[in-house]
Amino acid sequence: MLPEPLLEIKQLKKYYEIKKGWFQPMQQVRAVDDVTFTVYKGETFGLVGESGCGKSTTGRAILRLQEHTSGEIRFAGRDISGLPYTEMRQLRRKMQMVFQDPYASLNPKKTILQILTEPLRVHGLYAPEERVQKAIEMLEIVGLSEYHLHSYPHEFSGGQRQRIGIARAVILQPELIIADEPVSALDVSIQSQVINLLLQLQRDFHLTYIFISHDLGVVRHMTDRVGVMYLGKLVEQAKTEELFRSPKHPYTRALLSAVPIRHPDEKKERVVLKGDVPSPLNPPEGCHFHPRCPDCMQICKTEKPPVVEVGDHVVACHLYATENR
Amino acid sequence: MRERAPILEVRQLKTHIKTANGIVKAVDGVDFTIYEGETVGIVGESGCGKSMTSLSVMGLLPKPMAYIESGHIHFAGRDLTQLSEKEMRKLRGNDISMIFQEPMTSLNPVFTIGQQLSEPLKQHTRLNKKEIRNAVISMLQSVGIPRAEQIIDEYPHQLSGGMRQRVMISLAMLCQPKLLIADEPTTALDVTIQAQILELMKAIKATTNMAMMLITHDLGVVAEMCDRVMVMYAGQVVESADVRTIFNRPTHPYTQGLLASMPTANERKGELSSIPGSVPRPDEIPPGCAFAPRCSIATDRCRQERPVLQAYENQWTRCWHPISKPSEVTHAT
């Protein structure tokens, strides 16, 4: 059975204009620059990368929480990149988001009941009494209880808040959930509880996830396919196991080798990258990664790398371009 | 290694915090020793008292809310709890230094890197201006900062997070301290930058005889850096042993739970083993074992009687029912 694409992103771009002064020309930050990928029904697609690589912006642009500059976003076969505000709003019933910071993403003035029934009210689903029933059901699914219905967010711990954030997203029974670093702010023992909850919800409600994270351990555990981003570009895409087994792009290799060891006796060969991620205001010419790349060639400094398929990987790197092989 | 001289000995340290709802026992009777040249990791989740322990050692507790209730901190033969603020100042930055978690906020934004780095040298040495400048530049170069001669006159906002953490490390290393306390030194950094900083700290350790107290919640960092590990829970040390013993044969159920919940320790896509519940707030710690409500093997004894820290050869554990006794370990290995 061929997997059915749920979300197709084609050449998505998001540029920000930055004022440098009255008479200076505007400068452009290419936060997301020509990103193309497809997410299939029922899978978990991971977006990884370091801070500032554009992974969160990509997530927000898909939901059109931030307007993208150009590109195509097809959701269930329909191009949603140009939909008017009201239609997009209705469509968000099918696409929901879970945010990183469970302390900032819940309104402190609302009770859990209000937080959970608001999406139902906005979308005009169910009668008011039924909504309360739904909220209770949802709380139980995420491991809280009816008892918490009239509490306020400050009464909960970080892990419980994240559960509420997840409940708020799942209560609409969406098809796609974009989870932006959902477990990064949590302690290790709580992190595993929330990961388990996400996996269980995926099985029970047939959800499709876009899982944005910088934690490669969690990504390896959760996702089916992974896209690696660097300075606004998608540099490599592959099945998770495949990517972790034999990374192709030099950046992916360095990123994977930087993960701390799991056991004191483990020996790891490490590609330590020199320097920092360059400023996206002024990215290097040619391949954005070339100043830090251990395999940099002459062509990398001047020309943008082509996107090529290497086995099951899709890689943007001159190393794998046909003429260089 | 055990023949080395102890640098820091903490005995029955109790640090309390006064709050509107009464006194919170942030650190509740912690004992440990750090020897010359070794790295000791302190692991635990947020609120377990690991940062308060380090602040107590540094004498940087936010007074008057937090204070050392009882206990001793012996450093190089002196009891730090008895020293005056003036005497502590002579020690801080000179014999004991600290690296903080947030490289963004721990440098002063209105002074140049050079001005901030020359401070400890002005305080603790008799070098003249030129010598100080040279010392700072060579320190910056040794932590891998490019263009050190220019960076010295720049402000913190001009540097990236990784660079700022390097500056913090060079600041801590300037007076060649005997003990370095690193509180989550890489938590705010990206993985590739974290790898750079860890390599740097390993290189520094290889060339000096400095002892290090590394506070972290990341077990990967512990595996990478530490010789010995202390696991803290609710203000107490629950387990302490050398790093291999902790990873191979953890005896305390909490340590076991932490290790088992690492995603890499589990089958992909499978259910992660996790510790139920969450860390208790300091005001709701039960009378018995603090971990009992979340422990799968807790008995009535655990719920009523607080366990003591017991020694099994080189391993200490605070549990009535330690899971694998180290005597079995010696047979097994």
UniProtKB/TrEMBL annotation, chain A:
<dbReference type="Pfam" id="PF00005">
    <property type="entry name" value="ABC_tran"/>
</dbReference>
<dbReference type="InterPro" id="IPR013563">
    <property type="entry name" value="Oligopep_ABC_C"/>
</dbReference>
<dbReference type="InterPro" id="IPR003593">
    <property type="entry name" value="AAA+_ATPase"/>
</dbReference>
<keyword id="KW-0547">Nucleotide-binding</keyword>
<comment type="similarity">
    <text>Belongs to the ABC transporter superfamily.</text>
</comment>
<dbReference type="Pfam" id="PF08352">
    <property type="entry name" value="oligo_HPY"/>
</dbReference>
<dbReference type="InterPro" id="IPR027417">
    <property type="entry name" value="P-loop_NTPase"/>
</dbReference>
<dbReference type="InterPro" id="IPR050319">
    <property type="entry name" value="ABC_transp_ATP-bind"/>
</dbReference>
<dbReference type="GO" id="GO:0005524">
    <property type="term" value="F:ATP binding"/>
</dbReference>
<dbReference type="GO" id="GO:0015833">
    <property type="term" value="P:peptide transport"/>
</dbReference>
<dbReference type="InterPro" id="IPR003439">
    <property type="entry name" value="ABC_transporter-like_ATP-bd"/>
</dbReference>
<keyword id="KW-0813">Transport</keyword>
<dbReference type="GO" id="GO:0055085">
    <property type="term" value="P:transmembrane transport"/>
</dbReference>
<protein>
    <submittedName>
        <fullName>Peptide/nickel transport system ATP-binding protein/oligopeptide transport system ATP-binding protein</fullName>
    </submittedName>
</protein>
<feature type="domain" description="ABC transporter">
    <location>
        <begin position="7"/>
        <end position="256"/>
    </location>
</feature>
<keyword id="KW-0067">ATP-binding</keyword>
<dbReference type="InterPro" id="IPR017871">
    <property type="entry name" value="ABC_transporter-like_CS"/>
</dbReference>
<dbReference type="GO" id="GO:0016887">
    <property type="term" value="F:ATP hydrolysis activity"/>
</dbReference>
